[in-house]
Amino acid sequence: MNNKLTKLMENDRFATFVGIDLLEVQPGYAVAKMDITEKHLNGVDIVQGGAIFTLADFAFAAASNAYGQITVAINANISYFKALKGGSLTAEAREVSGSHKIANYRVDVFNEQRDLIAQLTVTGYKKNEKAD
Questions:
Q1: Coiled-coil regions in this chain (predicted)?
Q2: Which domain range does residue 100 map to?
Q3: What letter would DSSP give residue 108?
Q4: Are 117 and 82 in contact (CB under 8 A)?
Q5: Per residue in 16-75, pLDDT tens?
Q6: Strand 102-110, strand 88-98: pairing
Q7: How many other CB atoms are there within 10 angstroms of residue 112's CB atom?
Q8: How far apart are CA 90 and CA 111, in angstroms?
């Protein structure tokens, strides 16, 4: 990971606050992990949907910005398939298609047994700013 991308990811204060770790990143692909703690649970004691979304969004950000051009989400849709109460979650972001200004990503979120917990689809806009 280049220094500017490393700084960009480290500066994501919310991802740091919720405990997300970036495990792997390359242009168009990233893997991020989050260990579930009490702070991630909602009122019915399952992982809050916003925590899952944040993990998936962070993986998208790492994968899309790894090209060296600032990319931001302009549309995102998440589907939740299974609830969980603990353990860890891993998000794997992959570029599905890309052009000069627009990129589309799919982010699969898995539990420790590799059960699909959620899937995020994201459209990203490539700004006229370099990430490196």
A1: none
A2: 3-130
A3: E
A4: yes
A5: 888 999 999 999 999 999 999 999 999 999 999 999 999 999 999 999 999 999 999 999
A6: antiparallel
A7: 12
A8: 6
